[in-house]
């Protein structure tokens, strides 16, 4: 923003000149569990000039809002969990720095674990891990959540003990507007065509190697390659995304050290377009694996593995400038801030002491 500042000239008269004062604040949301000290959805500020986190603010008091998404007009859609009922809730700013509940849509049983928002179609997508269901919701005129319009249940399972049933873990849009869905329980990734009313039709089904446990995906900005994180075998699979909507296996890489034999599961995955690097978190080894991506997006090279200085890095995210990475730890209640090298995308720890209770989701606004 521009600000007028006074300046005295040689004769003692005040002159005005204008200078550009840049406010280098990047806000982001935290989705959390509320089993201990957390109370709901929080906002934190990243000061990119001072290279620090500041101002933890409770936006909405809610039970276990573990994942959030935000529309362009500032409406927050979040997981809602209350008294053996689960679903999605919508919140709008109320003018005093807090958010007011618009409405919530609940069903009996476990809530969804992931929320995706479709700005063009005004739809909300929910992945229900425990039920193995994919839910789509319309957005109402007041920006609230409409009733679920479709439910899809997938029934084949993999060999891992955690694959006892279908477990939908992720649902969001492809660059060309289709819906991509990860089912950890069946080792499958689904591509759907989406109708304006939220009805889905299957475009393709990709079958991952048994025991992979597909959790989340991220696309290369070129739209031609998908990076699939396997929670159960701690892997990243490179998949080619065809114009037809088919996914084709290219290669597979692993996120944890070969000599690590204790518990580990891969969790979040992010792509930094500025440095052409891919990042994956390890829960157990408590680290971030950094991969350099070839220019065409087809190959990866592990260039760093760095500890996150907290326990169970459930999620992390990269700020819009591509210069900083924030890690949320579910069990140690701290956020770690890393600076990203402009040269190669490697990480340098700046701070690991900022309080972030029971963090499950880090979402830059």
Automatic annotation (TrEMBL):
<protein>
    <recommendedName>
        <fullName>6-phosphogluconolactonase</fullName>
    </recommendedName>
</protein>
<dbReference type="GO" id="GO:0005829">
    <property type="term" value="C:cytosol"/>
</dbReference>
<dbReference type="InterPro" id="IPR015943">
    <property type="entry name" value="WD40/YVTN_repeat-like_dom_sf"/>
</dbReference>
<dbReference type="Pfam" id="PF10282">
    <property type="entry name" value="Lactonase"/>
</dbReference>
<dbReference type="InterPro" id="IPR050282">
    <property type="entry name" value="Cycloisomerase_2"/>
</dbReference>
<dbReference type="InterPro" id="IPR019405">
    <property type="entry name" value="Lactonase_7-beta_prop"/>
</dbReference>
<comment type="similarity">
    <text>Belongs to the cycloisomerase 2 family.</text>
</comment>
<dbReference type="InterPro" id="IPR011048">
    <property type="entry name" value="Haem_d1_sf"/>
</dbReference>
<dbReference type="GO" id="GO:0017057">
    <property type="term" value="F:6-phosphogluconolactonase activity"/>
</dbReference>
């Amino acid at each position: 923003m521009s600000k007028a500042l006074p300046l005295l000239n040689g004769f003692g008269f005040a002159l005005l000149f204008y200078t550009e004062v840049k406010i280098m604040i990047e806000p982001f949301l935290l989705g959390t569990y509320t089993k201990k000290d957390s109370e709901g959805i929080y906002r934190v500020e990243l000061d990119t000039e001072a290279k620090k986190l500041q101002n933890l603010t409770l936006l909405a008091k809610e039970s276990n809002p573990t994942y959030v998404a935000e529309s362009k007009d500032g409406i927050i859609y979040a997981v809602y969990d209350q008294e053996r009922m689960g679903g999605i809730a919508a919140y709008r700013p109320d003018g005093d720095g807090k958010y007011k509940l618009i409405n919530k849509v609940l069903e009996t049983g476990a809530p969804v674990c992931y929320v995706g928002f479709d700005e063009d179609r005004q739809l909300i997508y929910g992945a229900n891990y425990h039920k193995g269901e994919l839910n789509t919701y319309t957005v109402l005129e007041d920006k609230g959540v409409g009733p679920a319009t479709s439910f899809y249940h997938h029934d084949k399972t993999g060999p891992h003990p955690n694959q006892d049933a279908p477990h939908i873990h992720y649902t969001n849009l492809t660059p060309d507007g289709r819906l991509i869905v990860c089912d950890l329980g069946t080792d499958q990734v689904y591509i759907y065509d989406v109708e304006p009313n939220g009805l889905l039709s299957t475009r393709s089904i990709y079958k991952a190697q048994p025991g992979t446990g597909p959790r989340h995906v991220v696309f290369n900005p070129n739209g031609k390659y998908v990076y699939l994180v396997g929670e159960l075998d701690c892997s990243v699979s490179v998949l080619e995304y065809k114009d037809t909507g088919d996914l084709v296996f290219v290669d597979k890489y692993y996120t944890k050290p070969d000599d690590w034999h204790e518990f580990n599961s891969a969790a979040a995955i992010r792509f930094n377009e500025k440095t052409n690097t891919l990042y994956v978190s390890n829960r157990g080894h408590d680290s971030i694996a950094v991969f350099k991506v070839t220019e065409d997006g087809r190959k990866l090279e592990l260039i760093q593995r760095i500890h996150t200085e907290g326990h169970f890095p459930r999620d992390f995210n990269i700020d819009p400038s591509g210069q900083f990475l924030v890690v949320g730890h579910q069990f140690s209640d701290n956020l770690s801030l890393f600076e990203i090298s402009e040269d190669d995308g490697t990480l340098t720890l700046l701070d690991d002491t900022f309080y972030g209770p029971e963090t499950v989701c880090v979402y830059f606004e």
